[in-house]
Structures are given as C-alpha cells and as structure tokens.
Amino acid sequence: MRLRAGAIAAGGACVARAPDGRVTFVRHALPGELVRASVTGESRRFLRADAVEVLEPSPDRVPAPCAFAGPGRCGGCDFQHMALPAQRAAKAGLLRAQLQHHTGLDVPVTVEVPMVHGRIDDDGLGWRTRMQFAVDTSGRAGLRRHRSHEVEPIDDCRIAAPPVAARELLATRWPGAGAVVVACADGGPDPGTGDDAGAGAGAAGAGATRSVVALPHGRTSGAPQPGIGSTATLTAHVLGRRFRISPGSFWQVHQGAPQVLAEAVVTGLQPMAGENVLDLYAGVGLFAAVIGVMVGPSGTVTAVESSRGAAADARYNLRGLARSTVLRSSVAPGVLRRVGPADLVVLDPPRAGAGRAVTAAIAALRPRRVAYVACDPATLGRDLGVLVELGWQIRSLRAFDLFPMTEHVEAVAICEPPGS
Ligand SMILES: C[S@@+](CC[C@H](N)C(=O)[O-])C[C@H]1O[C@@H](n2cnc3c(N)ncnc32)[C@H](O)[C@@H]1O
User: Fold this and answer.
1) CATH class of the domain whose range is 1-61
2) Domain 90-117+254-416 architecture
3) What is the distance in A from the centroid of ligand 1 to the CA of 282?
4) Whose CA is nearest to atom 7 of ligand 1?
C-alpha cells in the first residue's frame, strides 16, 4: 500500500488511513512521509504495517545508528530512524495529548535531556543499564522482533551502556537458556561492608558492578542456571548516597535516571525538616533515602514496596535514617489509611499506574504536595484526572528522555490539593 503517514500514536507508530478506510499503524515511518507499507497485522477495525520504502522522506529522517533496526528486524527500538530532537518533540506531543484527554488541561511539555556522567546525552546511545536478551534454540542471543517470539540475532546493541558489555554477551553461546538478563551499576564500595563490589566485574568496566543471569526457557525471572551467570549484588551512587540493588530488584534503566528523577522529585516537593513522607512503589528506596535526609531526624519516611527483595534492599539502604520504615506490602487504600497522614507523597508505580482507588486514597491523606513519577503517559493522565476531579492542581509537569530511540518517556508531575 502507498500511505501518507500522520501523527505518531501511543506505541510509536504513525497513524495512516488504508485504501479501504481502516486506521493503519505504520512503524518505521515519520509524520508527513509518503511510504510503501507492508501489512504485518490485521483486525476488523485496524491494520498494522511496516514502512518498507520511503517515497517522500521527512526532514527528520536519519540513518539508523543501529545495523539491526528496520522493518522485520530487531523490535527493541521504535525511533532509530528519527532525529533526536524530533523524537523528543513527538514524546512531548504524546504526553500533552494524554493529559489533555484525561484532565481537560492543556499543559505545555518540554522533554528534557538527561546528563550522563556530566555529559549531556546528545546521541541517545549507550544509556541502557538493564537488558534482557532472548536466546534462540541454537543458543545464540539476540533481541525479539516486534510483536514476535522470533529472535533477531545481533552482535551489538547500540543503546546498551558500556558496562553491560553487550558485544561480549552476544558473542557467547547460551545453550539451554531462554534469556540472558544483565544489569549493571556504577559500583564502588559496598555500603555495608566497605568491600569493593566492583572488584572482579571484568568486562563490566572499572568500578562497575554487573549481574548476568541466564534463565531457562519459559522463565522471565529467577535464579541463574548452574554454571552460567553471576548474580552480583549491584551498588549505585545517587546524590551522595549508596544503594544496594539485589538481582531482581527494580532500578531505573537509564544511567542518568536515578539522579535526574531524584532531583526532579525533591525540587518539586521541596521537603522541609520535620515533615512526614510516604514513598509508594519505593523499589530499593531511591526517593525515600534522598528525601529522608532532607526531612531530618524530626521527620519520618515510610517506603511501601511489594517485592520482597526490593523491600529488603530498601531496609538496608535506609538503615542510617533513624525514623524510616519500610513496609513490604501492595499499595492499597487500607494500607494508606494505616500509614498516613503525610505531608508529602511520592509515587512511582509500574506502567499500570496507581488506579482510581489508590489515587483517591492518596488525596484523602491531604498531603501538602504529591510527586507522581510515571513511565506511561496514559496511566499518568488517567490518575491525574482523578486528582483534578477532586479539585487538585498540577503545579508542574516535567518530562525526561530516559528511553532515547524508543517511544517511551518518563514524567514527574507535582500536584497540590485544593486551596493550597
Ligand atoms: C517503577 S518502579 C519504582 C521504584 C523506585 N521508585 C525507583 O525509582 O527505583 C515500581 C516499583 O513498584 C513495585 N510495585 C509494583 N506493584 C506494586 C504494588 N501494587 N504495591 C507496591 N509496590 C509495587 C515494584 O516492585 C517496583 O519496585
């Protein structure tokens, strides 16, 4: 089909109209381009397609930095063919549209560019500290094709951070494994023992800590297979604090993300000495630790996290803060009533968002401010819609390009209750 590509939709594809009138989501195209597209999926209401030839290119089109990107190839990235400023403008547009749809508010958005080790991220490459490579039946590692179980064999991943040592892992054969999960962090001495956790990291790089786990077929998490992998506990440093991150515990994926997000949260919340703070969906306690120092010994910080391993890490990471508590629990209205009241709330839920009941329960605690950290503009919009319905204001909305080359974007919304 020859198609004229329209705006980018959630999911990263351009919206077009097929000759039979069906809405068509076209990957590998850019807004405004005329393309020849090949259908990759079909339902009664819409089609999916790949742009296989560009007849009229957009000025935002660039050669993909990755040799494995393109129609039918690696499904890991959505925007390798798009100039970085255009990627960021597209993400700002998606976020603004979702907020408008759910809250009725038109909030201008600029997608900010993170710093990595003091350098502005101007190429969108080498940022990803956590990867899951798929392994084919011959034991070769690669990445899955878009919406497929097929593995695209690759010998490098341009978005992987150098300590991942992607080339080395991809050159290795993994017989019997279904996936290879790798995570790395900047390393340094262990917060508890003072031992250098980076020692022996080998290809991960000087000082970096790296964990490599090969999973059997059909498993998405769990212990390494005997004989392959190393489940090193990672150590990371953020704003002068060290964090222990066990294999399986959540940690932000972009090298610069923990610092950028922690700074955005404290700038937005302006924590004061003596305040009571809730960190919901706390992971290993990133925000709780940074804010805990600011509220001081007369304040309290309570972290709520459902994963056993991450909650244990959070306890370890917060152990120097006298009035800190880690509650291993799902975030739910009853739990919030028990742990409240709070002056400040930070929540950083998974992609599904917090949902109406939890969002309303947070509002009922009447905190002075809420910081909502979100990786999904649609669920962020939906949950902010609940706050806006209850009379809350969105005081600021910042967005960060923490997933360059993909359609994903991270946002931090600061909200205030009615009458503030
Ligand atoms: C996006 S991560 C954020 C972690 C942390 N704020 C950070 O930046 O490192 C979400 C966390 O919420 C946890 N989680 C998922 N569902 C949860 C729930 N219903 N209740 C509590 N924690 C949950 C996950 O285990 C994960 O650690």
Assistant:
1) mainly beta
2) 3-Layer(aba) Sandwich (3.40)
3) 5
4) 283
